[in-house]
Write a structure and sequence with these properties.
715 residues, 3% strand, two-stranded antiparallel sheet
Length: 715
Amino acid sequence: MLLEEAISSGPTFFSLAPWIVFFPGIGLLINIIFGGMILERGKWGEKIVGSIASLASGLAFVVAVLLAISLQGHPEGQIVTLTDWITIGDLSIPWAFQVDTLSVVMMLVVSGVGTLIHIYAIGYMHEDVRHNGDPNRFRRFFVFMNLFIAAMMILVSGDNYMMLFVGWEGVGLCSYLLIGFWYEKGKDGIGNAMAAKKAMITNRIGDFGFLLAAFSIFWTFGTFNFHSIFEKAPEVAAQNPEALLFITLCMLIGVTGKSAQLPLYVWLPDAMAGPTPVSALIHAATMVTAGVYLIARSAELYVLVPTAQTVVTLVGAATALFAATIAVGQFDIKKVLAYSTISQLGFMVAAVGMGAFVAGMFHLVTHAFFKALLFLSAGSVIQGLERGHHHVAHDPRLKKHVKGHGHEFDPQDMRNMGGLRSQMKITFWVYLIGAIALTGIPPLAGFWSKDEILAEANHLNLTAYILLTLAAIFTAFYMARQVLMVFFGKARTPAADHAQESPLVMTVPLMVLAALTVLGGALNLPFMGFHNLTLWLEQTLEGVVKEGEFVVLVALLSTGLTLVAFGLAWWLYNPRRYEEFWGAPAARRADDPLRSYIGPVFDTLKNKYWVDELYWTVILNPYISLSRFLADVIDWQFWHDWFHDKAIVGSYNMLTRLLAVRFDLGGIDAFFNGLARLVQRFAGLLRRVQTGYVRNYALMIFVGVVVILGYLLLR
């Protein structure tokens, strides 16, 4: 009681809200201005640059913690206005930070997990920039990372949809910069650049939906401010429900782009082109969570439009199952996790769609813990294999073994791994914790958040419950498959046999994330007195939050089905069986035991249902053909060659020739030339009079006098 009184009567830190953006901004400016000189100082240069960026993100986390403390005593929150931004007539949009329990949850996740990723990246990028042959890009990477944190902080802290949209576009820009960080690498030397472009263009489609929603909001409500909109929403729902339906469905288009839902999910797997810390930041803490946050922030609109809620729920549930099945057929360690992210985002979108906003946000938080853990652990595995491959490539006795599965060694291909639990013990244990949490095994954090979503779906939407349960089964199978292929059995390549553990700067953040993964479920246990996150969020989402219930049957069923999936994965991929499979002659061996049983189905999953190929066939190739037709036929042949060169230039030349030759030369010039010739001839005649002899002139005078006298006499 005394502690509560002390908190409620203590100082508040709301005025510090702008610093959640300023600190990352200052960090990136320091590295832009002084980072080059710092890097020139030798081996400590990279550590200083990385530490500046990590400190900037860490200070933003400190500010978020102080804001959370302030909300303990003032749960109503506060809006901190920094400056006027846009003023046009009656429209006034300030640059203002909304500090409430929902925004602060996002601030804590973004800055907290983001800081751990920054620290990890110091060790990871030290090797990555050398492996890719350009150590000078180390500074650029951390500039982009700080910019990413700043943009995401703007997104989650704005008090209006326009400020949210600035952050929304900012994280889109940062994803483009970081996915294409090694833009000259990848397939044909442009693969990574194409992946970045794919992310940018796909998100622009979603952003178009967001803009339609924003324009409709202003048209309907006359403002972009959250509080004003939510106050008027019930009245608008009664008078013009179609407007709210249009707004919420257009927002969903934005969500499908940013949070990688059907049908705009295709950019996220290709985002693996960026360095692994980028994958972790995008998938765990920042960009892909923006769509979930948008729906949660707009909860008071969605609860008034049941049709939109149903559509959002079904899109999320279908995405969860669809992506989970694709993950079963992937061999790239990061792409398995990428499709897992799409699937788990489906869980979150389905949750907030059906009105289980706390369950969705709870899963967003726990997913940030274990998905960051999994991606960063995957990065540790990849660099461990690269170190092993480097050792093999420089050992004359092992050079002949440098190739892996396929023609070139790929450190991300799980078929080149195996037995890594003995070489990389720390990475193995933290990866195992993350995998178990993702599959939803109690008592890890993933179980509590996933089970809360399933319990809500069982109560609110049976179709979503069935789809999500099936997705959970596939999740358990593909994660067990991944762990067995990567860490168990014997090393299948010399690189795996010589893999080395990562340095402490990488493994310590992994251990911290593993601890959060184990303990994170305590944020919102479904028991009386432990609904901490529910009580926290109901201060902001007042009237739309309800306490989650623990449904024993749902929990037992999901856990039982998960264990069955584990058993099936063990039967197919246990070390003895898998090594026998792998040891068979290549001519009689498939690349995966599962292919031996489901053949064409496995091919379908491996090829991701050929969705990318379908998009190329139905959309991109026709678009490219149309573009070429418009460029070559319409623009060049018709517009340039015919209309411009013939119709315009040809007609102009013909007219100018007519005017120049017929009218000017044949008419005007001919007239004046004839006049000149006439004058010339007349002058020639007169010239004969001018003889130059005095006698002729005297004769002419005499004749003139005679003529005059004769005229006078005759007159």
